[in-house]
Task: inverse folding
């Protein structure tokens, strides 16, 4: 599923509900951190083994839904900020490889 | 850029740096919320108009880099949790449309 | 209400519920960020004027309860990390005054 | 150190720097989550044993400073929202004891 499709679905709902004026950079940034925390609520008191069990239970769908929410708000925030995510990801990978190589050749 | 490509690049660096044992669900969830906050630092004391100006300044690249970091940690966390993000996004869109329709037809 | 009293009440409940082994630094740090987000959920789509109205409605008590949760987790985390909050606050104030004076005298 | 003293010091600096107009509920809520994340950065890739070592190193002061920042923003946010933190804490403790008792007596 590509980002244009995700954004189109997000904007369709926002339009029908009249939520578009709320989708300012700051509101979306706050929504993004709220969604991340909602996902963290499922993990917070569990060990990594218990999280593994959780992900094989009926709750797994709720965690997946939180991750989908995070993805949607992230893409919407990037769009509102005018950030080309593909370009940002490519730049970041180049930078990560550069730093990694620098750390390998001696620091 | 598709999620397999992003994950492959993320894992390549993690492998070369010996970071893979650190990539547990809880550590990645915490990293995700830290990255969201690093992005928020650029927005936090600014009005939406000032954010618009920021995104036309040289700092825009830093904001874009934070958004790319969030995207990478999100995909890695989903992978470690065994969540199929495409399926999660499709399910979420169906659910969002259903709720929207329900709100339109009365309730 | 002083921090010793808050911590004693927190630990009493934790002891009766058998939650003490869960109160590790990382779990408490994650709980703290989850509580902050729960508070933010009340504010996230509202303007500052709407937040003012919210704080005069019946929901104000829920916001207050979230702030109390944040306060309790913050003090518990500090205790578990061995941080003396009074000393930390005094040091921070000295530092803030120093920076402020530096910025006033032309940097 | 009591909350009035902390708030007075916070407001003194804000006044000298002209930051008071920025101290709206939403900005303070975002600042609070950013400060929590700054603290989490020190813990995020470390095990609880490594965090214990960290707290005996020179970095401990930085963690303490982040906790102090969280405390200051929390009190300022409560003040701006008109929340009496002492009352909120007392109410929360009563509620926590009630829930604990309910869970002990079999619900």
Result:
């Amino acid at each position: 599923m590509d980002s244009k499709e995700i954004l189109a679905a997000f904007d369709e709902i926002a339009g029908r509900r009249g939520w578009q004026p709320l989708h300012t950079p700051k509101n979306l940034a706050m929504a993004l951190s709220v969604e991340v925390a909602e996902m963290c609520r499922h993990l917070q008191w569990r060990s990594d083994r218990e999280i593994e069990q959780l992900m094989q239970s009926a709750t797994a769908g709720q965690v997946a839904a939180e991750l989908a929410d995070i993805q949607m708000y992230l893409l919407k925030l990037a769009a509102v900020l005018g950030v080309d995510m593909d370009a940002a990801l490519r730049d970041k990978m180049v930078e990560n490889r550069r730093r990694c190589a620098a750390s390998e050749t001696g620091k």
Notes: Chain B has a mean pLDDT of 95. Helices of chain B lie at 3-17, 25-43, 48-54, 60-80, 85-104. The first helix of chain B runs from residue 3 to 17.
